[in-house]
Amino acid sequence: MRRLIPTRSSPQPISVMTSNSMRASCRFRDLSPRFSLASFLLVSCTLACLSFSQAIANDRPNVVIVMADDLGYGDIGCYGAKGLETPNIDRMASEGCQFTSGYCSASTCTPTRYSFLTGSYAFRFPGTGIAPPNSPALIPAGTTTTASVLQEAGYKTAVIGKWHLGLGEKNEGPDWNGDLKPGPLEIGFDHCILLPTTNDRVPQVYVNNHNVENLDPADPLWVGNKKPSQDHPTGITHRDTLKMDWSHGHNSTIHNGISRIGFYTGGHAARFRDEDLSDRWVAESKRWISDHKEEPFFLFFASHDLHVPRVVNERFQGSTALGPRGDAIAELDWCVGELMKSLEENGLTEKTLLVFCSDNGPVLDDGYKDDANEKLGEHDPNGPYQGGKYTVYEGGTRTPFITRMPGTIPVGVSDELVCTIDFAASLAALVGQELPNDACLDSHNVLGALMNQSGASGREHLVQQDNGKVGNYGYRVGDWKLVRHDQKKSYNFDLSMTRKSVPQFALYNLESDPAEQNDLSQSEPQRAKQMQQELQQLLDAGRSR
Ligand code: NG6
Ligand code: CA
């Protein structure tokens, strides 16, 4: 399937797609002259005194990946948002490539982030569903990751923002008052400033490399699953004091007038205000980009927007007609604008591959009464698709996905199938690193497609998962989509947490039926059977690379 979809922010979509199903491969001649084989050899010879990887790295683009949280396909202006504006992300798209089949691999946060970094489907690794507050590090120290591949190629690497992949040793979990490791620094990042879990999970503190920032040893931080004392205030006992009421869950320890998932005490000097998170991510990123402007770098900008509780900075409160959910999209858009400004100010715009994506599809009421439903108006968070966060329908994993690198990535719209799980193999190809055979088991090199190169193809197939409970999958091949629900139930058809019974298998044609309404498994029994078998083989094989 190859289509050109003109959008209002992509004034000149160009004909970069072909029907050639050739696998995308990284060859220097596919890229601009700046990254040609000749320039690579020239640079390598001239810099003979430097190590091989250093020489390559010196001629390599920076990579900045912005991952939004709970952002749906229809939530951005150039993807059809209504009642809110995203001028910065729209500009990024109009200067780069806007994907119509850009995916994350799972419809919840932790498994998508796990797959994004490890390049392996999270469902192969039990225990990689939504991580609780005291989760140990889910990615073992020393694992080959998107970050470690770039680090080995001579890149400086950082993650700034939401982590939600656990910290600390297996069976122990985070030592909140001591060294928080292993964590990002043990899997390829040189630097991290983190929201350790999610903003709705305790504790509300920043992690700066290996430590909780501003922690006063006289006021140690305790985090647990049980109420620490009878008189500990919670969202149940002190509900009338809350500045944002909860609707389900989220009724344990109160911080900043908002009750959360889990309990904690202490660490008062270290606690942040939700309103300041985005400003912090942006300030840290600007500083880090400027500090590393002379060397190749990889920044994973992991925004917490628009995860609940949606409490944006005061200057964005009420900035859209959609209530806090819309305001959080406006704040996210501002972040992208500031990052682009920072690249510009440092003269790095043309030298930086900037990516925008999401960790899972949309949800409206995800536990707080913030008018997400009531103020939705005409806006359609999952665009033309069905379902959202927690589902294996398209709305769960097909999201806004944009790449930009002026002068290298032709401006346009691409229908190629690309996924956040592919960054490991694609960026390894970009910097000339070999992936070990036993790593990044499902990451495919789709660099050509990410760079919108003429004739380059994306993935041939993709397995979509929900939160990792055995047996719910989407399997897309071309225009066809098999949906498998071993649980025979699905959440969130209407972007809420209602559940509905579904058949174990259903088959859809995404070209004629993007909303997955017409199950064709009876009229296409052969195809349905074949796709069921292929999916099972992909699950059983343990790898797809
Ligand atoms: C769920 C939470 C939801 C959100 C989600 C994780 C309840 C009732 N629901 O368990 O609010 O935190 O976990 O979201 O507690 S994610 O985007 O990080 O995967
Ligand atoms: Ca999420």
Automatic annotation (TrEMBL):
Keywords tagged on the record: Hydrolase
- A GO term for molecular function: choline-sulfatase activity
Where do the record's region annotations for Disordered lie? 513-545
EC numbers: 3.1.6.6
Q: Sorted alphabetically, which InterPro entries does this protein's record hold? A: Alkaline_phosphatase_core_sf, GAG_Ulvan_Degrading_Sulfatases, Sulfatase_CS, Sulfatase_N
Q: Which Pfam families match?
A: Sulfatase
Query: Which family does the UniProt entry place this protein in?
Result: Belongs to the sulfatase family.
The identity of this protein, by name, is Choline-sulfatase
Instruction: State the organism named in the record.
Output: Rhodopirellula islandica
Supply the source organism's classification. Bacteria, Pseudomonadati, Planctomycetota, Planctomycetia, Pirellulales
